[in-house]
Amino acid sequence: MAADLTGPSGEPSARAGAAIDRLTRVAPDFPVPGVLFRDLTPVLADADSLRLIGVALAVGFGPFDVVAGLESRGFLLGTAVAMAAGTGVLAIRKPGKLPGDILSEEFDLEYGTATLELNPSDVADGARVLVVDDVLATGGTAAAACRLLRRAGAAPIGVSVAIELGALGGRAQLGDVPIRALRLY
Questions:
Q1: Is 73 a catalytic residue?
Q2: Average pLDDT along the chain, 185 residues, taken 10 residues at a time
Q3: Which residues form the Phosphoribosyltransferase domain (predicted)?
Q4: In the chain, N or C: fewer CB atoms in 10 Å?
């Protein structure tokens, strides 16, 4: 059964955003020089903030059947979203982590290239999928996940992230896929 959290999202989003502002650790020049890394680990470790962010990331997309968490922090946030929405969660992984016949997508990162994989048998044909990750930077990871889901026969109905790094232009990579970010930096 599809989750439908279409109610007003302002209040949970504002509180979730405040938690992100308060708890996120900023690490300059990580993982490479020139990158300002926003580490959500302290946010994830705070149970109240994690629950609140799970709700805030889920609302406003209409009904969806399953959440796709992107490796690795997207697994944690995706699980929180799935718990809030009453759906399951599937894992879109880095290479070599999934058994069986898998689909792969290579993509560009803010600081290099990478590949994501999905076992198409993990998602039902026609499933409405909400993609969840911690940060939207260049958009490469989220766009690759959406391509994988489409190739598997699913419909990515939105991308929901805790933080968007607006200067990196990630939204442009996602075309007409709706995007929700709790914080824009």
A1: yes
A2: 52 90 97 90 97 96 97 97 97 96 88 91 98 95 98 99 95 97 96
A3: 64-163
A4: N
